[in-house]
């Protein structure tokens, strides 16, 4: 029994440390994507404040190009349309089943 509890505690600690490391890695990845590689929290807060005040004045030309490309790509997406049709089919089938059950109950 003691071995089992010890193993469970060790497993929980390992998983917890893994989660903490994963969160740190995700944070570093987000900072890398944003282009902010400073490790100091205070400088990143100041930079975010400056970026939000200037963001309304400056529009990144690459961003507008990517936005146009995304709109063109989203014009036809096979998987989203297939998912939508599948969802509509499942919804219709469940609605028929519910109506059938209601009819059976009303007959009783």
Automatic annotation (TrEMBL):
<protein>
    <submittedName>
        <fullName>DUF3679 domain-containing protein</fullName>
    </submittedName>
</protein>
<dbReference type="Pfam" id="PF12438">
    <property type="entry name" value="DUF3679"/>
</dbReference>
<dbReference type="InterPro" id="IPR020534">
    <property type="entry name" value="Uncharacterised_YqxA"/>
</dbReference>
